[in-house]
From TrEMBL:
Pfam families: GDYXXLXY. InterPro entries: GDYXXLXY (IPR025833). This is GDYXXLXY protein. It comes from the Bacteria. The lineage of its organism: Bacteria, Bacillati, Bacillota, Negativicutes, Selenomonadales.
Amino acid sequence: MKNKRLLLCLFIVVSLLQAAVPLYMAWRWEDILQTGHRFYWQTAPVDPADAFKGRYVDLRFKEDTAPIIGADNLILGQQVYALIAENAGGQAYISGVSVNRPEQGYYVKVRAYAKGPGTAYVNLPFTRYYLPENLAPAAENAYRERAGKTGVAAVRIKDGYGVIEQLYIGEQTLYEFLRQPQ
């Protein structure tokens, strides 16, 4: 009898954990979209062969280097923290890279893939912008023609994580741009 109660309690705890993990994962990204600080990142031209994989736009960012902060012993492939700032024009950039988690300010967790004298090269973790599949071909053409000139991604950042909120072509969102007559 005692073992049945213990097994029942264990079953309930495991069931609650199984339900809580996916709910937490979904909530975390939605929380960043709702309460994270918005940065505008200028995007770079994409490789036409890898521009789309299914229903998302594959983004590249011009920003991928930053000075290493402190006398950190950075190891290639190591998770580091990219400190995010805005320039006078409101564009986001990586102001520095540190192996230590910053105590204040905005940052994202990244991997260092190369290193120069006092400089680290990183890949920003938000590179996929998802959209409805029926819009994908038109979005691909519009983005490919204008990325690097007027393509900007609005990214919400909070507690080391970033989520792409919107993709802009010029002053218009991607959806507004696609709705206008061509």
